[in-house]
Amino acid sequence: MAGFLPYIYDVAMKPLEKARFEKIRAGLVRKARGRVLEIGFGTGANFRYYQGADRVDAIEPNPDMSKQAGNRIRKSKTPIRTYEAVAEKLPFADNCFDTVVATLVFCTIPDPVKALEEIYRVSKPGAKILMFEHVKMDQPLIGKTQQSLTPVWKRLCDGCHLDRDTLDLINRSPLDIIQVDSFYGGLFLTIESQKPF
């Protein structure tokens, strides 16, 4: 199953990417500046949107996903270096990134609290953290449905948690939230936060 996931992912995301997802993703990623860390680059869907970045260091723990990104790396106008690594143990020094980007990935990270600690560690003071994530819905019925479907969904979709409350995790981290925008009735959020100076 793991070997087919990158192909399934690209096919499943295509209709969404062609619609509003592409605009949301592009608008967020284009805000990245300086030296950028991308968490969980998957098949490289963000790579074409980097415009103000000097370089991008991108991590992805799934080698099958990262193999699919080769063509997008070659086409990118921004230098991109990839690493097989997990968000909970980033292979970078403290205080070295100006921007961190994570899109549709925090749902799959096994220990998101540790991942946020690592993002905080490797970010420079004042660094922006740009995220686009699906989250647990506020509506009780939908939230309970997400919770009940998550065990099966995780097995089918590379560890994806339908019921993860990423905004709450960031609220409880040392990061300062700057702006949150909601899409599709609150199912998807863009979250812009910052490491304090």
From TrEMBL:
GO terms for molecular function: S-adenosylmethionine-dependent methyltransferase activity. The keyword Methyltransferase applies. Keywords: Methyltransferase, Transferase. Signal peptide: none annotated. GO terms for biological process: methylation. Residues 37-130 form the Methyltransferase type domain. Pfam families: Methyltransf_11. InterPro entries: Methyltransf_11, SAM-dependent_MTases_sf, Thiol_S-MT. This is Class I SAM-dependent methyltransferase. The lineage of its organism: Bacteria, Bacillati, Bacillota, Bacilli, Bacillales.
